[in-house]
Amino acid sequence: MKIRIKYKTRTGERLTSWKGPDDPSPGSFIYGGDPDRIIQLVLWNGTRPVMRSAPWTGYMVASQYQANSSLVYVVFVSTKDEISLSYSLLDGAPHTMYVLTYSGEYQLRSWNRTKRDWAIIGTWPADVCSRYGHCGPNGYCDNTDSIPSCKCLDGFEPASLEEWSRGTFYQGCRRREMLRCGDGFLALTGMKTPDNFVHIGHRSSEECAAECGRNCSCVAYAYANLRQSSSTWTEDVTRCLIWTGELIDTGKMGDVVVGSDTLYLRVAGVNAGA
């Protein structure tokens, strides 16, 4: 099967939940490509995002899940008309399927031949940190910690210490010092880059940096070369993302995680030439 979205129409196949456990009419949860920013996947409850993938960086095999002798490959492909992901299994693997439940869980299920029943071997959102915007504006969830935790991006501090001491992060983080046009950027590696980006095509890495650097409203940028994907029919194999507002739904994934990115964050006091 494929989940895909077409570049021109911003339409394509998505998963829709049932309305209830015994009601197969369409429910409120939808999973698929983001029509506004087509290089990422989103789980919605109506129009409200519940979970979001990291923006695509050009990889082909996105993920592998192994349990009960099942190995699932999730493969991204870009052509001149669409971007899609498809799923495949190793030969001899038990029947396996993804399900979007009526309660809003995206599950990976594998058939247990002994019990003759479906076993759940993966569930998303997996924890509170994988829920959309859990750490608030300008905060990020550090998944490299033994216990994932919310932190503030460099140059920021909790907007409400009282709130953070209670373990809630609705207000997120605020800047310690206001930005100036000449401030430079810190390179944060291994990141899940934020939502609400502007995607600019046909830019080199240097041109992407300059695009953000000369815009005093630009607070961050990220660049990727998509040539490693099977984008043989795609005219533009560059991906320049810039952000001009609050940074929402950011995370630290680690440098070795497929799909991790380098976020160049503008920070007060950093030399623009550094």
Automatic annotation (TrEMBL):
Superkingdom assignment: Eukaryota
Ranges of residues in domain Apple: 181-268
Domain EGF-like: 125-162
One Gene Ontology term from the biological process aspect of the record: recognition of pollen
Classification via Pfam families: PAN_2, S_locus_glycop
Keyword annotations from UniProtKB, A to Z: Disulfide bond, EGF-like domain, Signal
InterPro entries to which the protein is assigned, alphabetical: EGF, Pan_app, S_locus_glycoprot_dom
Protein name (Swiss-Prot/TrEMBL): non-specific serine/threonine protein kinase
Lineage of the organism: Eukaryota, Viridiplantae, Streptophyta, Embryophyta, Tracheophyta
